[in-house]
Design brief:
five-stranded mixed sheet, 24% helix
Length: 199
C-alpha cells in the first residue's frame, strides 16, 4: 500500500494500492495549521483504509510548488515515515496530481501567495494518462489570469485549490512504470525565503 502526503496547498494524506486505486483520503483546506494537522491526518487516512503503519510499503511525497513553511511540514512527515520504516520514498511534483488524466495541452496553476500564481505547463503523453511537463514551473502575476479565465495560451487552465493525494500516488506509479525519473527530494520554491542566514 502507498501512503501519499502533500502540504503544498492545504494538508492532504491518501492511501492507494500498488496499482494506483484510491483507498482513502484525509485532508484539510486550512493553510495555516499544517503542523497541527499532519499527524492526525496520517492516522485518519490509515484508519479509513483499515490499515496500520506496518501495511505501508512506499511513501509518496509532494514537493510543491508551495509556500516555504507549509510545504516543509508535509515533506518532513513523509521523509520521517519512510525513514522510520525503511520504506522507499517517491518525490513527486505536486502539480502532477492535476495532470494524471491529461488529454489536451494544459496549464496547472496554484496559489503562490504574494499576488502570484505558480504555473506548470503540460502536454499529453502519447500513451495517455499523466501528462508530460513542459519546462519549469514559474511564477505568474495574479492579474495576468482572470477569475473566469479557462485557457492559458493554447492550453486548458487547471486551477488547483486542493490536491488529491491519491492522484499524486498515481503520478508516481505512472512515472515508474514508464521508466521515468522521479523528482528530486527537495522542495520546489519559486522565490527566495524571507529569512536567510548571514554569510
Amino acid at each position: 500500500m502507498i501512503l501519499a502526503i502533500d502540504s503544498s496547498a492545504g494538508t492532504a494524506v491518501g492511501v492507494s494500492t500498488l496499482e494506483g486505486e484510491a483507498v482513502s483520503v484525509a485532508e484539510t483546506k486550512d493553510r495555516r495549521s499544517h503542523a497541527e494537522a499532519i499527524g492526525p491526518l496520517i492516522a485518519d487516512a490509515l484508519r479509513l483504509a483499515g490499515l496500520g503503519p506496518g501495511d505501508v510499503t512506499a511513501v509518496v511525497m509532494g514537493v510543491g510548488p508551495g509556500p516555504f513553511t507549509g510545504l516543509r511540514v508535509g515533506m518532513a512527515a513523509a521523509q520521517s515515515f519512510a525513514w522510520a520504516r525503511s520504506l522507499p520514498l517517491w518525490p513527486v511534483h505536486s502539480h502532477d496530481a492535476a495532470a494524471v488524466f491529461l488529454t489536451v495541452d494544459s496549464a496547472v496553476i496554484s496559489d503562490a501567495r504574494r499576488g502570484e500564481w505558480a504555473l506548470t505547463s503540460y502536454t499529453p503523453h502519447p500513451d495517455g494518462g499523466l501528462g508530460i511537463r513542459v519546462g519549469s514551473t514559474r511564477l505568474i502575476p495574479r492579474e495576468d489570469i482572470a477569475d473566469d479565465q479557462t485557457h492559458w495560451g493554447d492550453g486548458v487552465l487547471i486551477r488547483v485549490e486542493e490536491l488529491n493525494p491519491t492522484h499524486l500516488a498515481l503520478a508516481a506509479l505512472t512515472r515508474r512504470a514508464r521508466g521515468e525519473s522521479l523528482d528530486e527530494p527537495r522542495p520546489v520554491y519559486l522565490r527566495e525565503p524571507d529569512v536567510t542566514m548571514p554569510q
